[in-house]
Amino acid sequence: MTKALPPAESSATSAAAPAAAHAAAPGIICTVDVVLLTLRDRALHVVLLKRRGEPYAGALALPGGYIHPEEDATAWDAAARMLREKTGIVSPYLEQLATYSGRQRDPRGWSMSVVYYALVPDELLPHDGDGLSVVPVAELPELPFDHAEIVQLAVSRVRAKSQYSSLPVYLCGERITLPQLQAVYEAVLGEPINKVSFRRKVEELGMLEPVEGELVTGAAHRPAQVYRLRPAFRRELSTVQRGLNA
């Protein structure tokens, strides 16, 4: 006996089932977050904003928000936009840190956040920003989501890269002396740097150019030459093979 074939509509129903299930599945929350770091009182600080909506309304958190697919060409563009809209800052250095994802990190559902970090001189931060706080990274308050873990990872990344690159210059103003720059590096790294070794590494990095005719005179020291970042390194890092104290 020949086995009867199933009705044609059964095949169509079977094919449509996965599509229907996919359409009914909840969407993934896709955001960007930015760890904006600055140097204040010779210590690294992070910029936090008071959340306006749920979840965690009123809590301090990292600047962040949804990716806008019609407006943001990339996640980097979304992070730059978020930073500009929420803090008024256009950071010269914005680098991807990591991607955080999972079902448990956000009470609203399965979420993914592409995290970036940025560095900015303290004098460029808005001091009258609505809901903006600048907090020492060593004294973080309780933060929502996984933001405390994210801040610690960013600080670790910045300290590691500062050992062999020009990264800390983004915490400085447009003009700086070598003693001032060494103090910035030491504050970021949390340890002293040998003066001779530091100046040798700065020369190897080749990131600075002297500002002709500009000197800073200290009470107990001879005048110090004023430098600025070379144009080639205003958005790109300069690196060396070995660390600052090597």
From TrEMBL:
CDD domains: NUDIX_NadM_like. One of its GO terms (molecular function) is nucleotidyltransferase activity. The keyword Magnesium does not apply. InterPro entries: NUDIX_hydrolase-like_dom_sf, NUDIX_hydrolase_dom, WH-like_DNA-bd_sf, WH_DNA-bd_sf, WHD_NrtR. It holds the Pfam family WHD_NrtR. Transmembrane segments: none annotated. Keywords: Nucleotidyltransferase, Transferase. The keyword Transferase applies. Residues 30-157 form the Nudix hydrolase domain. This is Bifunctional nicotinamide mononucleotide adenylyltransferase/ADP-ribose pyrophosphatase. It comes from Bordetella ansorpii.
